[in-house]
Fold this protein.
Amino acid sequence: MTVTTEAAVEVATDVAPSPSATGSAWHLLITPAIIVAAGIALFVGVRAAEPNESELRSLEASFVLRLLGQHISLAAVSSVIVLAVAIPVGIALSRKGARLVTPAILGIANIGQGAPAIGVIVILAVILPTAAPFWVAILALSLYSVLPALRNTMVGLQQVDPALVEAGRGIGMSATRTLLTVELPLAAPIMLAGIRTTLVLNVGVAALAAFIGAGGLGEMIAAGVKLQQNVVLITGSVLIAMLALGIDWLGALAERYLRPKGV
Amino acid sequence: MSDVGGVQIDLRNLTKRYPGQKKPAVDDVTMTINAGEIVVFVGPSGSGKTTTMKLINRLIEPTSGEILINGEDARRKKADDLRRHIGYVIQAGGLFPHMTVADNIAIVPKILKWDKKRIAARVDELLAMVGLEPAVYAQRYPRQLSGGQQQRVGVARALAADPPVLLMDEPFGAVDPITRAKLQDELLSLQDELSKTIVFVTHDFDEAVKIGDRIAVLAEGSRIVQYAEPAEILANPADDFVRGFIGENGAMKLLNVTRVADIDLDEALTVDPEADAAEVHRALADRDEHWAVVLDRTAGRPVRWVNREELADASGPVEGFGGPVDVTISGRSTLQEALEALLRSDAELVPVVVKRRYRGLVTLNTVQQAIATLRERARKS
Protein backbone atom coordinates (compact mmCIF):
# COMPACT_ATOMS: atom_id res chain seq x y z
CA MET A 1 0.00 0.00 0.00
CA THR A 2 2.66 2.49 0.98
CA VAL A 3 4.51 1.73 -2.21
CA THR A 4 1.44 2.58 -4.27
CA THR A 5 0.88 5.87 -2.49
CA GLU A 6 4.47 6.97 -2.85
CA ALA A 7 4.56 6.14 -6.51
CA ALA A 8 1.38 8.08 -7.02
CA VAL A 9 2.76 11.14 -5.22
CA GLU A 10 5.79 11.03 -7.42
CA VAL A 11 3.60 11.06 -10.51
CA ALA A 12 1.66 13.98 -9.09
CA THR A 13 4.70 16.25 -9.26
CA ASP A 14 5.07 15.45 -12.93
CA VAL A 15 3.22 18.17 -14.78
CA ALA A 16 4.12 17.24 -18.31
CA PRO A 17 2.30 14.37 -19.96
CA SER A 18 4.22 11.23 -19.29
CA PRO A 19 6.47 10.06 -22.09
CA SER A 20 4.55 6.81 -22.30
CA ALA A 21 1.88 8.73 -24.19
CA THR A 22 4.04 8.94 -27.28
CA GLY A 23 5.96 6.51 -29.43
CA SER A 24 5.03 2.95 -30.24
CA ALA A 25 2.30 1.13 -28.38
CA TRP A 26 4.00 -2.08 -27.27
CA HIS A 27 4.82 -0.73 -23.80
CA LEU A 28 1.09 -0.39 -23.15
CA LEU A 29 1.10 -4.18 -22.74
CA ILE A 30 3.61 -4.15 -19.89
CA THR A 31 1.18 -3.01 -17.20
CA PRO A 32 -1.54 -5.59 -17.93
CA ALA A 33 1.18 -8.25 -17.98
CA ILE A 34 2.38 -7.16 -14.56
CA ILE A 35 -1.18 -7.13 -13.22
CA VAL A 36 -1.84 -10.65 -14.49
CA ALA A 37 1.49 -11.86 -13.12
CA ALA A 38 0.73 -10.30 -9.74
CA GLY A 39 -2.68 -11.97 -9.71
CA ILE A 40 -1.21 -15.36 -10.47
CA ALA A 41 1.57 -14.91 -7.92
CA LEU A 42 -0.98 -13.88 -5.31
CA PHE A 43 -3.16 -16.89 -6.01
CA VAL A 44 -0.24 -19.31 -5.91
CA GLY A 45 1.27 -17.59 -2.87
CA VAL A 46 -1.95 -17.71 -0.85
CA ARG A 47 -2.38 -21.38 -1.74
CA ALA A 48 1.16 -22.17 -0.69
CA ALA A 49 0.81 -20.26 2.61
CA GLU A 50 -1.92 -22.68 3.71
CA PRO A 51 -4.06 -20.08 5.51
CA ASN A 52 -5.76 -21.12 8.76
CA GLU A 53 -9.48 -21.04 9.28
CA SER A 54 -9.84 -17.44 10.44
CA GLU A 55 -7.58 -16.29 7.67
CA LEU A 56 -9.67 -18.24 5.19
CA ARG A 57 -12.74 -16.40 6.43
CA SER A 58 -11.05 -13.10 5.67
CA LEU A 59 -10.09 -14.35 2.22
CA GLU A 60 -13.54 -15.57 1.29
CA ALA A 61 -14.42 -14.44 -2.22
CA SER A 62 -17.71 -12.74 -1.29
CA PHE A 63 -16.01 -10.79 1.49
CA VAL A 64 -13.09 -9.71 -0.68
CA LEU A 65 -15.43 -8.76 -3.50
CA ARG A 66 -17.51 -6.63 -1.14
CA LEU A 67 -14.38 -4.80 0.01
CA LEU A 68 -13.26 -4.43 -3.58
CA GLY A 69 -16.65 -2.96 -4.45
CA GLN A 70 -16.40 -0.50 -1.56
CA HIS A 71 -12.89 0.42 -2.58
CA ILE A 72 -13.87 1.07 -6.16
CA SER A 73 -16.88 3.15 -5.16
CA LEU A 74 -14.72 5.21 -2.77
CA ALA A 75 -12.23 5.89 -5.55
CA ALA A 76 -14.86 6.40 -8.24
CA VAL A 77 -17.10 8.76 -6.29
CA SER A 78 -14.20 10.86 -5.08
CA SER A 79 -12.75 10.96 -8.60
CA VAL A 80 -16.04 12.12 -10.09
CA ILE A 81 -16.28 14.83 -7.45
CA VAL A 82 -12.70 15.90 -7.97
CA LEU A 83 -13.08 16.10 -11.73
CA ALA A 84 -16.39 17.92 -11.43
CA VAL A 85 -14.66 20.50 -9.27
CA ALA A 86 -11.12 20.60 -10.63
CA ILE A 87 -11.88 20.96 -14.32
CA PRO A 88 -14.37 23.85 -14.10
CA VAL A 89 -12.31 25.58 -11.41
CA GLY A 90 -9.13 25.02 -13.41
CA ILE A 91 -10.79 26.52 -16.47
CA ALA A 92 -12.09 29.47 -14.44
CA LEU A 93 -8.68 30.09 -12.93
CA SER A 94 -7.02 30.09 -16.32
CA ARG A 95 -9.28 32.89 -17.60
CA LYS A 96 -7.97 36.45 -17.64
CA GLY A 97 -9.35 38.21 -14.57
CA ALA A 98 -8.56 35.24 -12.28
CA ARG A 99 -4.88 36.07 -11.86
CA LEU A 100 -5.44 37.37 -8.34
CA VAL A 101 -7.26 34.38 -6.82
CA THR A 102 -5.18 31.72 -8.53
CA PRO A 103 -2.36 31.60 -5.94
CA ALA A 104 -4.84 31.38 -3.06
CA ILE A 105 -6.75 28.46 -4.57
CA LEU A 106 -3.60 26.65 -5.57
CA GLY A 107 -2.32 27.22 -2.02
CA ILE A 108 -5.36 25.54 -0.52
CA ALA A 109 -5.08 22.63 -2.93
CA ASN A 110 -1.41 22.34 -2.03
CA ILE A 111 -2.24 22.12 1.67
CA GLY A 112 -4.76 19.37 0.92
CA GLN A 113 -2.09 17.34 -0.77
CA GLY A 114 0.86 18.45 1.35
CA ALA A 115 -0.65 17.13 4.57
CA PRO A 116 -0.20 13.36 5.09
CA ALA A 117 -3.23 11.51 3.75
CA ILE A 118 -3.83 9.60 6.97
CA GLY A 119 -3.80 12.93 8.82
CA VAL A 120 -6.39 14.48 6.52
CA ILE A 121 -8.71 11.50 6.92
CA VAL A 122 -8.41 11.23 10.69
CA ILE A 123 -8.72 14.98 11.30
CA LEU A 124 -11.84 15.14 9.14
CA ALA A 125 -13.32 12.18 11.01
CA VAL A 126 -12.68 14.00 14.29
CA ILE A 127 -14.11 17.28 13.00
CA LEU A 128 -17.18 15.61 11.52
CA PRO A 129 -18.07 12.93 14.12
CA THR A 130 -21.70 12.61 13.02
CA ALA A 131 -21.07 12.28 9.27
CA ALA A 132 -21.17 8.88 7.60
CA PRO A 133 -17.63 7.46 7.41
CA PHE A 134 -18.06 6.86 3.67
CA TRP A 135 -18.63 10.55 2.97
CA VAL A 136 -15.89 11.64 5.35
CA ALA A 137 -13.56 9.39 3.41
CA ILE A 138 -14.84 10.80 0.11
CA LEU A 139 -14.22 14.35 1.33
CA ALA A 140 -10.71 13.49 2.47
CA LEU A 141 -9.89 11.72 -0.76
CA SER A 142 -11.23 14.61 -2.80
CA LEU A 143 -9.22 17.18 -0.88
CA TYR A 144 -6.16 15.03 -1.14
CA SER A 145 -6.31 14.35 -4.87
CA VAL A 146 -7.73 17.55 -6.29
CA LEU A 147 -4.36 19.19 -6.87
CA PRO A 148 -3.03 17.24 -9.89
CA ALA A 149 -6.24 17.53 -11.86
CA LEU A 150 -6.67 21.18 -10.94
CA ARG A 151 -3.11 22.20 -11.57
CA ASN A 152 -2.78 20.30 -14.82
CA THR A 153 -6.03 21.77 -16.10
CA MET A 154 -4.63 25.24 -15.41
CA VAL A 155 -1.17 24.52 -16.73
CA GLY A 156 -2.60 22.75 -19.76
CA LEU A 157 -4.75 25.72 -20.64
CA GLN A 158 -2.02 28.24 -19.87
CA GLN A 159 0.48 26.58 -22.19
CA VAL A 160 -1.86 26.96 -25.18
CA ASP A 161 -0.25 29.58 -27.41
CA PRO A 162 -2.08 32.86 -26.69
CA ALA A 163 -1.65 33.77 -30.36
CA LEU A 164 -3.90 30.82 -31.27
CA VAL A 165 -6.56 31.94 -28.83
CA GLU A 166 -6.39 35.41 -30.28
CA ALA A 167 -6.50 34.01 -33.80
CA GLY A 168 -9.68 32.17 -32.83
CA ARG A 169 -11.29 35.27 -31.39
CA GLY A 170 -9.97 37.31 -34.31
CA ILE A 171 -11.80 35.26 -36.91
CA GLY A 172 -15.03 35.47 -34.96
CA MET A 173 -15.13 32.45 -32.66
CA SER A 174 -16.92 33.17 -29.39
CA ALA A 175 -14.99 32.80 -26.13
CA THR A 176 -16.87 29.57 -25.35
CA ARG A 177 -16.26 28.14 -28.79
CA THR A 178 -12.58 29.00 -28.56
CA LEU A 179 -12.40 27.27 -25.18
CA LEU A 180 -14.20 24.14 -26.36
CA THR A 181 -12.67 23.71 -29.81
CA VAL A 182 -9.20 25.20 -29.42
CA GLU A 183 -8.06 25.53 -25.81
CA LEU A 184 -9.39 22.32 -24.26
CA PRO A 185 -8.30 20.03 -27.12
CA LEU A 186 -4.83 21.54 -27.05
CA ALA A 187 -4.69 21.30 -23.24
CA ALA A 188 -6.00 17.72 -23.26
CA PRO A 189 -2.67 15.87 -23.06
CA ILE A 190 -1.57 17.71 -19.93
CA MET A 191 -5.04 17.63 -18.38
CA LEU A 192 -5.29 13.88 -18.96
CA ALA A 193 -1.94 13.36 -17.26
CA GLY A 194 -3.26 15.22 -14.21
CA ILE A 195 -6.54 13.34 -14.20
CA ARG A 196 -4.69 10.04 -14.43
CA THR A 197 -2.62 11.00 -11.40
CA THR A 198 -5.75 11.98 -9.50
CA LEU A 199 -7.40 8.63 -10.21
CA VAL A 200 -4.34 6.66 -9.15
CA LEU A 201 -4.04 8.73 -5.96
CA ASN A 202 -7.66 8.04 -5.13
CA VAL A 203 -7.27 4.29 -5.53
CA GLY A 204 -4.15 4.25 -3.39
CA VAL A 205 -5.33 6.56 -0.64
CA ALA A 206 -8.78 4.91 -0.45
CA ALA A 207 -6.94 2.15 1.45
CA LEU A 208 -6.76 4.55 4.40
CA ALA A 209 -10.56 4.84 4.55
CA ALA A 210 -10.56 1.62 6.56
CA PHE A 211 -9.03 3.47 9.50
CA ILE A 212 -12.23 5.49 9.97
CA GLY A 213 -14.49 2.55 9.25
CA ALA A 214 -15.38 3.44 5.68
CA GLY A 215 -14.45 0.03 4.33
CA GLY A 216 -12.50 -0.80 1.23
CA LEU A 217 -9.58 -3.14 0.70
CA GLY A 218 -7.73 -1.22 3.41
CA GLU A 219 -9.72 -3.30 5.87
CA MET A 220 -7.76 -6.38 4.86
CA ILE A 221 -4.56 -4.54 5.62
CA ALA A 222 -5.85 -3.22 8.93
CA ALA A 223 -7.12 -6.65 9.94
CA GLY A 224 -3.95 -8.30 8.76
CA VAL A 225 -1.84 -5.99 10.90
CA LYS A 226 -4.09 -6.26 13.94
CA LEU A 227 -4.46 -10.04 13.86
CA GLN A 228 -1.00 -10.72 12.48
CA GLN A 229 -2.52 -12.43 9.45
CA ASN A 230 0.21 -11.80 6.92
CA VAL A 231 -1.62 -13.63 4.16
CA VAL A 232 -4.59 -11.30 4.49
CA LEU A 233 -2.37 -8.24 4.75
CA ILE A 234 -0.43 -9.15 1.64
CA THR A 235 -3.55 -10.09 -0.32
CA GLY A 236 -5.12 -6.70 0.46
CA SER A 237 -1.97 -4.81 -0.46
CA VAL A 238 -1.48 -6.66 -3.72
CA LEU A 239 -5.14 -6.20 -4.70
CA ILE A 240 -4.88 -2.44 -4.13
CA ALA A 241 -1.68 -2.29 -6.11
CA MET A 242 -3.29 -4.24 -8.95
CA LEU A 243 -6.27 -1.92 -8.93
CA ALA A 244 -4.06 1.17 -8.97
CA LEU A 245 -1.96 -0.21 -11.78
CA GLY A 246 -5.12 -1.02 -13.74
CA ILE A 247 -6.45 2.50 -13.35
CA ASP A 248 -3.05 3.93 -14.28
CA TRP A 249 -3.10 1.76 -17.38
CA LEU A 250 -6.56 3.01 -18.38
CA GLY A 251 -5.20 6.53 -17.88
CA ALA A 252 -2.28 5.77 -20.16
CA LEU A 253 -4.67 4.49 -22.81
CA ALA A 254 -6.79 7.63 -22.50
CA GLU A 255 -3.71 9.85 -22.78
CA ARG A 256 -2.61 8.02 -25.85
CA TYR A 257 -5.88 7.83 -27.71
CA LEU A 258 -7.63 11.02 -26.61
CA ARG A 259 -4.63 13.15 -27.49
CA PRO A 260 -5.61 15.47 -30.37
CA LYS A 261 -4.26 14.49 -33.76
CA GLY A 262 -1.83 16.75 -35.52
CA VAL A 263 -0.19 17.93 -32.30
CA MET B 1 -14.05 35.07 -57.99
CA SER B 2 -15.96 37.54 -55.90
CA ASP B 3 -17.63 40.77 -56.83
CA VAL B 4 -18.06 41.94 -53.25
CA GLY B 5 -14.79 43.81 -53.22
CA GLY B 6 -13.83 45.98 -50.32
CA VAL B 7 -15.54 48.65 -48.32
CA GLN B 8 -14.32 51.91 -46.90
CA ILE B 9 -13.09 52.10 -43.33
CA ASP B 10 -13.11 55.35 -41.37
CA LEU B 11 -11.32 55.74 -38.08
CA ARG B 12 -12.39 58.85 -36.22
CA ASN B 13 -10.55 60.16 -33.17
CA LEU B 14 -9.76 56.60 -32.21
CA THR B 15 -8.04 56.36 -28.85
CA LYS B 16 -6.91 53.43 -26.73
CA ARG B 17 -5.76 54.13 -23.23
CA TYR B 18 -4.59 51.32 -20.95
CA PRO B 19 -5.20 51.79 -17.23
CA GLY B 20 -2.05 52.74 -15.40
CA GLN B 21 -0.29 54.07 -18.48
CA LYS B 22 0.25 57.77 -18.87
CA LYS B 23 0.36 57.95 -22.64
CA PRO B 24 -2.40 56.42 -24.73
CA ALA B 25 -1.27 53.47 -26.87
CA VAL B 26 -3.32 54.89 -29.71
CA ASP B 27 -3.79 58.60 -29.53
CA ASP B 28 -6.64 60.22 -31.43
CA VAL B 29 -6.16 58.52 -34.79
CA THR B 30 -8.32 59.73 -37.65
CA MET B 31 -7.91 58.24 -41.10
CA THR B 32 -9.84 56.96 -44.07
CA ILE B 33 -8.97 53.66 -45.69
CA ASN B 34 -10.36 53.59 -49.20
CA ALA B 35 -12.41 50.66 -50.41
CA GLY B 36 -10.35 48.08 -52.27
CA GLU B 37 -6.99 49.51 -51.26
CA ILE B 38 -4.13 47.92 -49.39
CA VAL B 39 -3.13 50.27 -46.62
CA VAL B 40 0.06 49.39 -44.79
CA PHE B 41 0.63 50.51 -41.21
CA VAL B 42 4.36 50.76 -40.84
CA GLY B 43 6.29 51.93 -37.82
CA PRO B 44 8.81 50.87 -35.21
CA SER B 45 7.79 48.40 -32.51
CA GLY B 46 5.78 50.12 -29.83
CA SER B 47 4.31 52.58 -32.29
CA GLY B 48 0.86 51.12 -31.75
CA LYS B 49 0.38 49.89 -35.31
CA THR B 50 -0.85 46.44 -34.29
CA THR B 51 -3.03 47.93 -31.56
CA THR B 52 -4.61 50.28 -34.09
CA MET B 53 -5.33 47.36 -36.38
CA LYS B 54 -6.87 45.32 -33.57
CA LEU B 55 -9.14 48.24 -32.74
CA ILE B 56 -10.73 47.79 -36.16
CA ASN B 57 -11.99 44.27 -35.39
CA ARG B 58 -12.26 45.11 -31.72
CA LEU B 59 -9.85 42.47 -30.50
CA ILE B 60 -8.93 45.51 -28.47
CA GLU B 61 -11.82 47.70 -27.43
CA PRO B 62 -11.19 51.39 -28.09
CA THR B 63 -11.43 53.79 -25.18
CA SER B 64 -13.07 56.39 -27.36
CA GLY B 65 -13.61 57.27 -30.98
CA GLU B 66 -15.47 55.76 -33.90
CA ILE B 67 -14.83 52.95 -36.34
CA LEU B 68 -16.99 53.06 -39.43
CA ILE B 69 -16.88 50.09 -41.75
CA ASN B 70 -18.84 50.81 -44.91
CA GLY B 71 -20.41 53.66 -42.97
CA GLU B 72 -21.64 51.37 -40.18
CA ASP B 73 -20.54 51.87 -36.62
CA ALA B 74 -18.46 48.80 -35.77
CA ARG B 75 -18.81 49.46 -32.06
CA ARG B 76 -22.56 48.95 -32.19
CA LYS B 77 -22.27 45.40 -33.51
CA LYS B 78 -21.60 42.28 -31.49
CA ALA B 79 -17.84 41.83 -31.60
CA ASP B 80 -18.02 38.17 -32.68
CA ASP B 81 -20.42 38.97 -35.54
CA LEU B 82 -18.25 41.88 -36.61
CA ARG B 83 -15.16 39.67 -36.75
CA ARG B 84 -16.86 36.99 -38.82
CA HIS B 85 -16.97 39.54 -41.62
CA ILE B 86 -13.44 40.80 -41.23
CA GLY B 87 -10.69 38.41 -42.31
CA TYR B 88 -7.82 38.14 -39.85
CA VAL B 89 -4.36 36.80 -40.63
CA ILE B 90 -1.54 36.66 -38.13
CA GLN B 91 2.10 35.70 -38.28
CA ALA B 92 2.62 32.09 -39.38
CA GLY B 93 -1.08 31.87 -40.16
CA GLY B 94 -2.23 31.14 -36.61
CA LEU B 95 -3.56 27.76 -37.71
CA PHE B 96 -4.96 25.42 -35.10
CA PRO B 97 -2.53 22.50 -34.99
CA HIS B 98 -5.15 19.91 -34.03
CA MET B 99 -7.38 20.64 -37.01
CA THR B 100 -6.78 19.69 -40.63
CA VAL B 101 -6.24 22.37 -43.23
CA ALA B 102 -9.84 21.91 -44.39
CA ASP B 103 -11.19 22.19 -40.84
CA ASN B 104 -9.16 25.32 -40.21
CA ILE B 105 -10.55 26.98 -43.32
CA ALA B 106 -14.10 25.81 -42.58
CA ILE B 107 -14.31 27.42 -39.12
CA VAL B 108 -16.12 30.62 -40.02
CA PRO B 109 -18.42 29.07 -42.66
CA LYS B 110 -19.40 26.49 -40.01
CA ILE B 111 -20.16 29.23 -37.50
CA LEU B 112 -22.23 30.93 -40.19
CA LYS B 113 -24.08 27.60 -40.61
CA TRP B 114 -23.33 27.03 -44.28
CA ASP B 115 -24.35 23.58 -45.44
CA LYS B 116 -21.68 20.90 -45.74
CA LYS B 117 -21.56 20.84 -49.53
CA ARG B 118 -21.10 24.57 -49.78
CA ILE B 119 -18.35 24.49 -47.15
CA ALA B 120 -16.49 21.67 -48.91
CA ALA B 121 -16.72 23.47 -52.24
CA ARG B 122 -15.53 26.72 -50.68
CA VAL B 123 -12.56 25.00 -49.02
CA ASP B 124 -11.46 23.53 -52.35
CA GLU B 125 -11.96 26.83 -54.12
CA LEU B 126 -9.89 28.71 -51.53
CA LEU B 127 -7.08 26.17 -51.49
CA ALA B 128 -6.84 26.38 -55.26
CA MET B 129 -6.92 30.16 -55.01
CA VAL B 130 -3.89 30.25 -52.73
CA GLY B 131 -2.06 27.74 -54.88
CA LEU B 132 -2.45 24.55 -52.81
CA GLU B 133 -3.82 21.45 -54.52
CA PRO B 134 -6.97 20.59 -52.48
CA ALA B 135 -6.63 16.83 -52.99
CA VAL B 136 -3.12 16.94 -51.55
CA TYR B 137 -3.44 19.46 -48.75
CA ALA B 138 -7.03 19.54 -47.46
CA GLN B 139 -6.62 16.66 -45.04
CA ARG B 140 -3.12 17.52 -43.82
CA TYR B 141 -2.38 18.93 -40.42
CA PRO B 142 -0.62 22.32 -40.20
CA ARG B 143 2.53 20.69 -38.84
CA GLN B 144 2.85 18.80 -42.13
CA LEU B 145 3.09 22.06 -44.10
CA SER B 146 5.99 24.43 -44.72
CA GLY B 147 5.89 27.93 -43.25
CA GLY B 148 4.86 29.43 -46.56
CA GLN B 149 2.10 26.86 -47.05
CA GLN B 150 0.79 27.49 -43.53
CA GLN B 151 0.68 31.18 -44.31
CA ARG B 152 -1.29 30.51 -47.49
CA VAL B 153 -3.80 28.44 -45.53
CA GLY B 154 -4.01 31.32 -43.04
CA VAL B 155 -4.97 33.65 -45.89
CA ALA B 156 -7.47 31.10 -47.22
CA ARG B 157 -9.04 30.82 -43.77
CA ALA B 158 -9.36 34.58 -43.53
CA LEU B 159 -11.06 34.73 -46.92
CA ALA B 160 -13.42 31.83 -46.17
CA ALA B 161 -16.63 33.80 -45.74
CA ASP B 162 -15.58 36.31 -48.39
CA PRO B 163 -15.24 39.26 -46.02
CA PRO B 164 -14.89 42.72 -47.57
CA VAL B 165 -12.09 43.62 -45.16
CA LEU B 166 -8.88 41.76 -44.41
CA LEU B 167 -6.58 42.55 -41.48
CA MET B 168 -3.07 41.17 -41.75
CA ASP B 169 -0.74 41.44 -38.77
CA GLU B 170 2.86 41.00 -39.91
CA PRO B 171 1.70 37.93 -41.82
CA PHE B 172 4.97 37.22 -43.60
CA GLY B 173 7.28 37.95 -40.68
CA ALA B 174 8.17 34.35 -39.93
CA VAL B 175 9.18 33.04 -43.35
CA ASP B 176 12.45 33.19 -45.25
CA PRO B 177 13.04 36.13 -47.64
CA ILE B 178 12.47 34.13 -50.82
CA THR B 179 9.18 32.66 -49.61
CA ARG B 180 8.20 36.07 -48.30
CA ALA B 181 8.71 37.72 -51.68
CA LYS B 182 6.64 34.97 -53.27
CA LEU B 183 3.84 35.34 -50.74
CA GLN B 184 3.84 39.10 -51.30
CA ASP B 185 3.52 38.60 -55.06
CA GLU B 186 0.71 36.11 -54.52
CA LEU B 187 -1.12 38.48 -52.21
CA LEU B 188 -0.88 41.22 -54.83
CA SER B 189 -2.21 39.02 -57.61
CA LEU B 190 -4.96 37.75 -55.30
CA GLN B 191 -5.83 41.36 -54.57
CA ASP B 192 -5.98 42.11 -58.31
CA GLU B 193 -8.76 39.56 -58.42
CA LEU B 194 -10.57 40.32 -55.16
CA SER B 195 -9.93 44.01 -54.45
CA LYS B 196 -10.62 43.70 -50.75
CA THR B 197 -9.89 46.49 -48.33
CA ILE B 198 -6.72 45.28 -46.67
CA VAL B 199 -5.02 46.68 -43.61
CA PHE B 200 -1.52 45.27 -43.44
CA VAL B 201 0.81 45.78 -40.50
CA THR B 202 4.56 45.46 -40.89
CA HIS B 203 7.75 46.97 -39.56
CA ASP B 204 9.49 46.34 -42.87
CA PHE B 205 9.37 49.48 -44.97
CA ASP B 206 10.37 47.67 -48.15
CA GLU B 207 7.44 45.33 -47.69
CA ALA B 208 5.19 48.34 -47.18
CA VAL B 209 6.44 49.91 -50.42
CA LYS B 210 5.89 46.71 -52.32
CA ILE B 211 2.48 45.80 -50.92
CA GLY B 212 0.83 49.11 -50.18
CA ASP B 213 -1.42 51.23 -52.34
CA ARG B 214 -0.97 53.66 -49.49
CA ILE B 215 1.35 53.66 -46.51
CA ALA B 216 0.65 55.12 -43.09
CA VAL B 217 3.92 55.77 -41.29
CA LEU B 218 3.13 55.61 -37.58
CA ALA B 219 5.12 56.96 -34.65
CA GLU B 220 4.54 56.47 -30.92
CA GLY B 221 0.89 56.56 -29.92
CA SER B 222 0.03 55.56 -33.49
CA ARG B 223 0.51 59.17 -34.56
CA ILE B 224 0.22 59.30 -38.34
CA VAL B 225 3.40 60.98 -39.47
CA GLN B 226 2.65 60.54 -43.15
CA TYR B 227 -0.17 58.84 -45.00
CA ALA B 228 0.39 58.73 -48.74
CA GLU B 229 1.18 56.59 -51.73
CA PRO B 230 4.57 54.88 -51.54
CA ALA B 231 6.06 56.99 -54.34
CA GLU B 232 5.11 60.19 -52.61
CA ILE B 233 6.54 59.10 -49.28
CA LEU B 234 9.77 58.08 -50.99
CA ALA B 235 9.98 61.22 -53.09
CA ASN B 236 9.11 63.57 -50.29
CA PRO B 237 9.36 62.15 -46.78
CA ALA B 238 7.44 64.29 -44.30
CA ASP B 239 10.24 64.54 -41.76
CA ASP B 240 13.40 62.94 -40.43
CA PHE B 241 11.42 60.15 -38.76
CA VAL B 242 10.06 59.03 -42.10
CA ARG B 243 13.42 59.60 -43.76
CA GLY B 244 15.03 57.39 -41.14
CA PHE B 245 12.45 54.73 -41.83
CA ILE B 246 13.00 54.83 -45.56
CA GLY B 247 16.70 54.33 -45.01
CA GLU B 248 19.66 55.37 -47.13
CA ASN B 249 18.53 54.27 -50.54
CA GLY B 250 15.19 56.03 -50.87
CA ALA B 251 15.91 57.05 -54.45
CA MET B 252 16.52 53.45 -55.44
CA LYS B 253 13.24 52.44 -53.80
CA LEU B 254 11.51 55.22 -55.67
CA LEU B 255 12.75 53.67 -58.91
CA ASN B 256 11.05 50.53 -57.79
CA VAL B 257 7.61 52.00 -57.28
CA THR B 258 7.50 54.25 -60.35
CA ARG B 259 6.25 52.81 -63.60
CA VAL B 260 7.70 53.72 -66.97
CA ALA B 261 4.24 54.58 -68.28
CA ASP B 262 3.95 57.32 -65.65
CA ILE B 263 7.03 59.32 -66.59
CA ASP B 264 7.95 61.63 -69.47
CA LEU B 265 9.75 59.57 -72.08
CA ASP B 266 12.42 60.72 -74.50
CA GLU B 267 11.59 61.05 -78.13
CA ALA B 268 13.58 59.92 -81.14
CA LEU B 269 13.13 60.08 -84.85
CA THR B 270 10.96 57.16 -85.96
CA VAL B 271 11.16 55.96 -89.52
CA ASP B 272 9.55 53.50 -91.87
CA PRO B 273 11.67 50.44 -92.83
CA GLU B 274 11.57 51.50 -96.46
CA ALA B 275 12.50 55.14 -95.88
CA ASP B 276 15.52 56.27 -97.83
CA ALA B 277 18.73 56.07 -95.80
CA ALA B 278 20.05 59.38 -97.13
CA GLU B 279 16.86 61.12 -96.14
CA VAL B 280 16.98 59.67 -92.65
CA HIS B 281 20.59 60.81 -92.37
CA ARG B 282 19.59 64.34 -93.35
CA ALA B 283 16.69 64.36 -90.89
CA LEU B 284 18.98 63.22 -88.05
CA ALA B 285 21.49 65.91 -88.97
CA ASP B 286 18.74 68.51 -88.94
CA ARG B 287 17.60 67.46 -85.49
CA ASP B 288 21.18 67.06 -84.35
CA GLU B 289 20.39 63.55 -83.09
CA HIS B 290 22.32 60.30 -83.42
CA TRP B 291 19.74 57.55 -83.37
CA ALA B 292 16.57 56.76 -85.21
CA VAL B 293 14.15 53.90 -84.50
CA VAL B 294 12.84 51.84 -87.38
CA LEU B 295 9.26 50.80 -86.73
CA ASP B 296 7.51 47.77 -88.10
CA ARG B 297 5.07 49.18 -90.66
CA THR B 298 1.91 47.38 -89.55
CA ALA B 299 2.33 46.93 -85.80
CA GLY B 300 4.33 50.03 -84.98
CA ARG B 301 6.76 47.85 -83.10
CA PRO B 302 10.43 48.98 -82.91
CA VAL B 303 12.54 46.61 -85.01
CA ARG B 304 15.91 48.28 -85.77
CA TRP B 305 18.25 50.97 -84.58
CA VAL B 306 20.14 53.09 -87.08
CA ASN B 307 22.72 55.70 -86.22
CA ARG B 308 23.75 58.83 -88.06
CA GLU B 309 27.40 57.90 -88.67
CA GLU B 310 26.39 54.63 -90.29
CA LEU B 311 24.03 56.36 -92.68
CA ALA B 312 26.57 58.86 -93.95
CA ASP B 313 26.88 58.45 -97.73
CA ALA B 314 24.36 55.59 -97.60
CA SER B 315 21.49 55.00 -99.98
CA GLY B 316 18.59 52.56 -100.32
CA PRO B 317 15.97 51.55 -97.74
CA VAL B 318 17.02 52.25 -94.17
CA GLU B 319 16.20 48.70 -93.05
CA GLY B 320 19.45 47.53 -94.59
CA PHE B 321 21.45 49.39 -91.97
CA GLY B 322 21.96 49.44 -88.20
CA GLY B 323 21.14 46.60 -85.88
CA PRO B 324 18.08 44.86 -84.49
CA VAL B 325 16.32 46.08 -81.37
CA ASP B 326 17.00 43.34 -78.87
CA VAL B 327 15.75 44.89 -75.64
CA THR B 328 12.45 46.65 -75.09
CA ILE B 329 10.55 47.36 -71.93
CA SER B 330 6.84 47.67 -71.27
CA GLY B 331 4.97 50.59 -69.80
CA ARG B 332 4.25 48.50 -66.73
CA SER B 333 7.93 48.03 -65.96
CA THR B 334 9.34 49.92 -63.01
CA LEU B 335 12.09 52.46 -63.46
CA GLN B 336 14.39 50.01 -61.74
CA GLU B 337 13.68 47.45 -64.43
CA ALA B 338 14.23 50.13 -67.08
CA LEU B 339 17.58 50.94 -65.53
CA GLU B 340 18.44 47.27 -65.44
CA ALA B 341 17.58 46.98 -69.15
CA LEU B 342 19.76 49.99 -69.96
CA LEU B 343 22.72 48.59 -68.11
CA ARG B 344 22.29 45.12 -69.53
CA SER B 345 22.08 46.16 -73.17
CA ASP B 346 24.90 47.99 -74.89
CA ALA B 347 22.56 50.70 -76.10
CA GLU B 348 22.21 54.06 -74.42
CA LEU B 349 18.51 53.95 -75.10
CA VAL B 350 15.78 51.40 -74.59
CA PRO B 351 12.49 51.69 -76.46
CA VAL B 352 9.27 51.51 -74.49
CA VAL B 353 6.51 49.38 -75.93
CA VAL B 354 2.92 49.60 -74.77
CA LYS B 355 0.54 47.07 -76.28
CA ARG B 356 3.17 46.23 -78.89
CA ARG B 357 3.43 49.82 -80.10
CA TYR B 358 6.41 52.09 -79.70
CA ARG B 359 5.85 54.85 -77.16
CA GLY B 360 9.21 56.49 -76.61
CA LEU B 361 12.64 55.94 -75.18
CA VAL B 362 14.23 55.56 -71.81
CA THR B 363 17.79 56.77 -71.29
CA LEU B 364 19.78 57.32 -68.12
CA ASN B 365 18.84 60.93 -68.47
CA THR B 366 15.11 60.07 -68.68
CA VAL B 367 15.33 58.21 -65.37
CA GLN B 368 17.17 61.04 -63.66
CA GLN B 369 14.71 63.60 -64.97
CA ALA B 370 11.78 61.46 -63.83
CA ILE B 371 13.06 61.23 -60.25
CA ALA B 372 13.66 64.97 -60.14
CA THR B 373 10.14 65.61 -61.43
CA LEU B 374 8.61 63.22 -58.87
CA ARG B 375 10.43 64.99 -56.09
CA GLU B 376 9.34 68.36 -57.39
CA ARG B 377 5.73 67.27 -57.70
CA ALA B 378 5.67 65.68 -54.22
CA ARG B 379 7.12 68.81 -52.70
CA LYS B 380 4.45 71.00 -54.26
CA SER B 381 1.48 68.85 -53.22
Observations:
- The mean pLDDT of chain B is 90.
- The two ends of chain B are 37 Å apart (CA to CA).
- Chain B is about 40% helix and 20% strand.
- Chain B touches chain A through 29 residues (CB under 8 Å).
